[in-house]
Sequence to fold (215 residues):
Amino acid sequence: MKKRKVRILFTSIIASMFLTMTSCGNSPSEHTHSWSTSWSSDETYHWHKCSGCDAINDKAEHTFVTTVVEPDYDHQGYTHHECSICEYSYNDNYVDPLEHHYSSTWSKDESAHWHACIDEGYETLAKDYALHDFGEWIIDEPATETAKGLKHRTCEKCSYRQEAIIPIGGETVANRIYTSSDAATLIVGSINVISKPVVFPNGAYENLKYVSSDE
Fold:
């Protein structure tokens, strides 16, 4: 009789332990799942998870809505996929930002030239910025003993014209005023530019070949 009671007691203890280990919450025999209102998800499925155990509910595959996002000048384009049920999302099919458009005409100031962007809102962008690449000086009006002269040179890239005053008394080359006692050809460089009468301080005219922009 005692052995039978011991066996029954032992069996009851084991059963109680088993129910405790496999149940959710404090009640070993009756558990009501408490499903989260937020979706859990992975790349393929979404589901509601019980807050008191590992059970899941409402598991289903994503229902994706696809939207193509076009690129602009500052951002990549891509395809956006978002589940209409749980809002899980991912992007793919990336494309580069748009390339800017630039004028084929040079913009310029007294120092440099560049191609300006013609896209609306990006007019301050520039490419091919560089300092002017001037050719040789060309004398437009020789100076006299009483009047200044005028010369100009042109950028070989953008055609920007730079003008300069020739001081009274004659043309200055390499910080020197040449007079009629000098040779008939001024050589300070190697590229022939013009051959034109030049007035010297004593009023004499000579046909001199001006061959350099070095001053």
About this structure: The CA atoms of residues 40 and 46 lie 5 Å apart. Confidence is low (pLDDT under 50) at residues 17-23, 172-215. The two ends are 129 Å apart (CA to CA). The longest helix spans residues 2-22.
